[in-house]
Design goal:
Helix content: 10-25%
Strand order of the largest sheet: 1-2-3-11-6-9
Oligomer: single chain
Radius of gyration: 31 Å
Structural class: alpha+beta
Number of strands: 13
Largest sheet: 6 strands, antiparallel
Length: 221
């Protein structure tokens, strides 16, 4: 046998041995590898265990006359603690109104998912005067309410709900950084309010005296 034949025979033997070893390893790997991908329920169960995941629209909603509010904040989504962030999914039914209010320590970004909203914002400006900004926002629009600005929005449609995603730069629940119109009126003696408005005290008699977070009400009352 010449050298070339001997080398060829040896290379073939080595190649066969390597191939055999590779097939054996593949077979062993196949025995320990799952034959099917995880089911949808298994994936969902795994995701639910993540401290960084929150099913916002599946959260228990706060229900009001004019709609619902579902929030993720430091009390129900602990990963937000100390992060200065919270998010809310808001749904206003036809006639629904977000009570006029302001946030003393937070601004908010409002992304409009569906429907049409009528907005009003009131705040001070560099020229020292008050300016009221009134406008409509539609699906895909983003509205910014600066910290401390008095504002509200309402569902401008009578045939469809209004849905928004609101993001705050605070981790606290919204009601912990919310001063509503009713609470503000009840914090002032009726005589003082009447003097400021230039009306008799009797004109304020129908203002409710129970102070509670209204958040969402309806204009159909």
């Amino acid at each position: 046998m010449n050298r070339r034949t001997a080398l060829g025979t040896g290379a073939a033997a080595l190649g066969g041995a390597a191939l055999g070893a590779g097939l054996t390893a593949a077979a062993a790997c196949a025995e320990t590898t799952p034959n099917a991908l995880p089911s949808a329920s298994e994936i969902d169960a795994n995701l639910n265990k993540s401290p960084h995941l929150f099913h916002l629209t599946a959260a228990d909603p706060d229900r009001y006359d004019g709609g619902t509010l579902q929030g993720a904040h430091e009390q129900n989504f602990p990963v937000l603690a100390g992060q200065n962030g919270a998010a809310y999914f808001v749904r206003l039914e036809p006639g629904g109104v977000r009570e006029p209010h302001w946030h003393p320590t937070a601004w908010e970004l409002n992304y409009h998912i569906s429907g049409t909203a009528k907005w009003t914002l009131l705040g001070t400006h560099p020229d020292g005067s008050y300016h009221t900004d009134v406008f409509e926002a539609h699906a895909g629009d983003l509205v910014f309410a600066p910290q401390g600005f008095f504002h509200y929005f309402e569902n401008a449609r009578t045939d469809a709900p209004l849905e928004l995603l609101i993001v705050f730069n605070t981790s606290a629940p919204e009601t912990s950084d919310d001063i509503g119109l009713l609470a503000a009126l009840n914090a002032i003696p009726r005589e003082v309010t009447a003097t400021g408005l230039g009306v008799p005290v009797s004109a304020l008699a129908s203002i409710p005296t129970e102070i509670k977070p209204i958040v969402i009400t309806t204009s159909r009352h």
